[in-house]
Amino acid sequence: MAEITRDFAATTFVVQDGKTLLLWHEKLKAWLPPGGHMEPHELPELAAVREVREETGLDVRLLGDRHTIGEVPVLIEPVCTLLETIEPGHQHIDFIYF
Questions:
Q1: pLDDT tens, 20-79?
Q2: What's the pLDDT at 92?
Q3: C-beta of residue 14 within 8 angstroms of C-beta of residue 60
Q4: To the nearest 10°, the Cα dihedral for 16, 59, 14, 25?
Q5: Taking a C-beta distance cutoff of 8 angstroms, is the pair 35, 11 a contact?
Q6: d(CA 36, CA 47)
């Protein structure tokens, strides 16, 4: 069985006034929301905001609630987490935010 490599990624759908921001991905020839690889030791919610800023110049606020249970931080929960096959033997675990 071939080894599968996996990277963590974060994607953010930026929605305002009923419109969704999409960017043209030249390599994939498709319109996609801002997103990309997480940096080592980066939290998914911070990666989601960083990727939007890097790709669009926009500062966004993710929908969701960051709070604590006792002294333990609860991160903003992604809407879903996708397992995307990028190419044979390589996948992304992609945290999806709005």
A1: 999 999 988 999 999 999 999 999 999 999 999 999 999 999 999 999 999 999 999 999
A2: 97
A3: yes
A4: 130
A5: yes
A6: 8
Residue 50 carries which side chain, given as an amino acid letter? R
Beta bridge partners of 73: 68
| Longest distance between any two alpha carbons in the chain, whole Å | 48
Q: Which SS3 state, helix, strand or coil, does residue 94 take?
A: strand
Q: What is the SS3 assignment for 42?
A: coil
- Spatial separation of the C-alpha atoms in residues 35 and 25, rounded to whole Å: 11
Q: Which residues, including other chains, have CB under 8 Å from residue 63's CB and lie 6 or more apart?
A: 76, 97, 98
Whether the per-residue pLDDT at 1 is higher than 80: the answer is no
CB 33, CB 60: distance < 8 Å? no
Beta bridge partners, 24, equal 31
What is the reported pLDDT for 28? 87
Alpha helices (H) in the chain, listed in sequence order: 44-56
